[in-house]
Amino acid sequence: MDVGNMSKAKHGAGHIGERQREQEHAIAPGDVDRDVTTGRSGFAERFAWRLLRVWFLLSRAHTLGVRGAAFDAAGRVFLVKHTYVTGWHLPGGGVEIGENFYAALVRELAEEGNLQLGDPAELFGIYHNNNTSRRDHVAVYVCRNVEQAENHGGDGEIADSGFFPIDALPEGTTPATARRLAEIINHQPPSLEW
Q1: Average pLDDT of each block of 10 consecutive residues along the chain (194 residues)?
Q2: Strands 136-143 vs 63-70: parallel, antiparallel or unpaired
Q3: Residue partners of 42: CB distance under 8 A and separation at least 6
Q4: Domains of the chain by residue range
Q5: Which of 50, 66, 90, 172 stands 20 to 30 A from 180 (CA)?
Q6: Of 192, 128, 135, 108, residue with least CA distance to 16
């Protein structure tokens, strides 16, 4: 196979590293059928997100993402609650075209939490995230002594965020987030799957 001549048109491959958030911002979260009293999404918004997910899966060869287990000087971990998925997650997102993992991490920490690295981040593991698609991979970094310039007031992407003691994670912390934190805190090797 001539790998030097693998054009998208010829081989049907998407761009590696396109941001997953392209799909998320195609329809602004909260703009479609959201119950303002409960904050819950209605049928139309859920259907739109599912439709965009199908488009996303069909149009990309691989996706690359990054997440940061961001700990402050007190040892608390920073978690975010997105407007478009349930649960509390490690901050992060897609790696842009032409961007490396580390640059994506720094950008995502700033965007989602107004966070700045204290110590250099250390790559903990690269995971296959079969929950999103068979082609999704996520790099997880451990970030120590992060500082928050100011509280993130929330926006169209982030509904809530904050620092939490590792032994008192908020209700609704996703199982994958809890597994990643347990691996890091207990000095376990990273699993292969998200």
Answers
A1: 37 39 41 46 77 67 89 98 94 94 97 96 93 83 94 80 97 97 96 88
A2: parallel
A3: 32, 33, 34, 35
A4: 63-185
A5: 50
A6: 135
